[in-house]
Amino acid sequence: MKKLVIGLLAVLMLAACAGGSSASVEGQWKLVSYGPAASQTPAAPDVETSIEFKDGQLNGNVGCNGFGGDYSVKGDQMEFGPVMSTMMYCEAVAEQESGTLAVFQETAGFVLDGDTLTITSADGAMSIVLERI
To answer: Where are the domains of the chain?
Structure first.
C-alpha cells in the first residue's frame, strides 16, 4: 500500500510539473484592462476583443483595427518584432487600442497566472491584462 501511495504521488507530481497548454501564452485571449501599471482602465464594455499568440505570430483586434506581428518568449520576457496595424480611427476605442499596442514594443515582461496573462512594457510604465478565452 505504501508503494502505491508513493507511486501515485510521483505520478501526480510529474503531471503537475509537465504542465500543459494552459502553461503557455499560446492561444486566444481577450482584453480585460490596459494602461498605466498602477491604475488600469477596464476594457470598453460591449466591445469584442481578441488577441492570439500562435507559432510566433501575434494577431488581434481590440476594438477597431486589426494588428499583427512576430513574438517570441524567453523566460519571463516576450520579444516583439514590428507590429503592423490597420489605420482606421475609431474614437470610442482609440485610447484602448493605443494603450494595448504600446505594450507590444520590443521587449516586455509577462506573468501568466492560470488563465490571466499580464504583459508589462520594458520600462514598467504600461501594462495590459488578458484573459484566456
So the answer is: 23-132
